[in-house]
Design a protein that fits this description.
The chain is of the alpha/beta class. It is built from ten helices and nine strands. The protein has helices at about 15-25, 40-50, 50-60, 75-80, 90-100, 100-110, 135-140, 170-175, 200-230, 255-275; strands at about 1-5, 35, 70, 85-90, 110-120, 125-130, 160, 180-185, 240. The strands form two sheets. Strands 1, 2, 5, 6, 7, 8 and 9 form a seven-stranded mixed sheet that branches. The chain has a two-stranded antiparallel sheet with strand order 3-4. It is globular.
Length: about 280
């Protein structure tokens, strides 16, 4: 079975959209299993419902970060005074509610898994396409700590945040579901480049630190999968890794021209990887 695994990355998810455009519209690929965290959860849900057109529409219609999140009153000062996040992701929630169609996903027969983490028990939860609160959990999967508030879904799923905190590339899930061919679309390069700027406030330091941690986690995930293939007791998994050569943008930089460039880069990178 063929699987698609989509990492987190915020605005960097534009790269995934371009790569998916190439894989689906140029190569004619379909996927039985789709696993995603953070922005990969939203992008993955759209692919699971067979709507690459709608996915491209979401990203090409973003005119500013205001269509994804609003800054809370007092910003960093508000956080220091006890607020649980810097931003309000109500605009993103409206996008999720408008575009994601759970019934289409279920009817497609594709298996969708999105990842979230509970701040209460620290566990990673893999959510299936049939979950009654799927849309809310997709939003929770995109809730980057500090940036966005944790989301309470139910008594069992409290204070849920970005699944990338524990599992930025859910490769094991895809393998456990029966995948023997996996397309992994990552949002950042294998090695983060040196950033030529000062980090002048707590927010910039926090988000750069998070990017470094996430990059380390998913490099480890890829290594683990490659090592899995060397074990004689395990079935072999064909792995196609599509990732940018350089950083696309900052995690929360939803700038139209940059997003379009990221999609273009993703499209060409998808072509390059599949035509080596």
């Amino acid at each position: 079975m063929r699987a698609l695994v989509l990492s987190g990355g915020g605005a960097k998810g534009c790269f995934q959209v371009g790569a998916l455009d190439y894989l689906i519209n140029e190569e004619g690929l379909d996927f039985n299993i789709i696993c995603g965290v953070s922005v990969g959860a939203l992008n993955g849900a759209m692919i699971a419902q067979g709507d690459i057109v709608g996915l491209k529409e979401i990203w090409t219609n973003i005119k500013s970060s205001d269509e994804i999140y609003d800054e809370r009153a007092f910003g960093l000062l508000g956080a220091a005074l006890g607020k649980d996040s810097l931003y309000n992701n109500a605009p993103l929630e409206r996008l999720v509610n408008r575009y994601v169609d759970q019934q289409k996903i279920i009817d497609s027969g594709r298996m969708l898994r999105i990842g979230v983490v509970s701040l209460h028990d620290s566990n990673y939860y893999s959510i299936a396409e049939t979950h009654s609160s799927l849309k809310k959990l997709i939003l929770a999967s995109t809730a980057i700590p500090i940036a966005f508030s944790p989301i309470n879904v139910s008594h069992d799923l409290m204070s849920m945040v970005d699944g990338g905190v524990r599992n930025i590339t859910p490769l094991k899930e895809a393998i456990d579901l029966g995948a023997n061919e996996i397309y992994v679309v990552l949002c950042t390069p294998a090695k983060l480049l040196k950033v030529k700027r000062d980090f002048g406030n707590v927010k910039e330091i926090a988000f750069r630190t998070l990017e470094i941690l996430i990059n380390e986690v998913y490099n480890n995930d890829i290594e683990t999968c490659l090592e899995y293939n060397l074990r004689p007791d395990k079935k072999k998994v064909t792995l196609h890794i599509i990732r940018p050569d350089t950083e696309i943008c900052d995690t929360l930089a939803f700038v139209p021209d940059t997003l379009q460039q990221g999609m273009d880069v993703g499209f060409e990178k998808g072509r390059a990887v599949l035509n080596v």
